[in-house]
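note to self — DONT lose this again. spent like an hour looking for the file last time. sequence + predicted structure for the chain T wanted, 196 res
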Amino acid sequence: MSEISAANLPLAGEQAILARRYVGALYALAEQEGAVDAVAADLLNLRVLWSESPEWRFVACDPRLSHESVAKAAEQVARSAGFGKLTSNFLAVVAENRRLSLLPLLIEYFFDEVGARRGEFHADVRIARPLTETQREALTASLAGAVGGKVHLKVVEDVSIIGGLTVKIGSQFLDASVKTKLDHLERSLKEAGAAA
């Protein structure tokens, strides 16, 4: 069973709107300059840095650090990783606005945007038991029909959902797990018992 990270959970409310604005601006600039693939490559490296460096995550997320310290750390990361001007500027703006803790989500949203523009989508699927090849093909075809493009599945086994599945494509989240259905049933029974 794989550990569920914050980036695998749906983002909602003001944070979702904010993340979409950052990513929309970055994508528009990258497209305008013909640098979408270069920015994507930088963001792949940034994703690796984020996952492999607890020090970088600490600096990015600790609210006690000064703006100057955070900005300097972001600049140093961009320089040492050899990021292009767009990615470096993007990182600087995110650092200046104290939003570095959103980086995993911003990166994910950027790749969602690239995929959507190219007619490709990534679906994170959680299931209780392994899919057969036939089930995988049927699920891929069903999701492709729903989103209107090619779908790449990332399947994670998670016995805690008991049965059924959950699917996350971009900011869309579908929960058809047995666990959620049982939770709803339990709530309904408690409410019916309280009303009686």
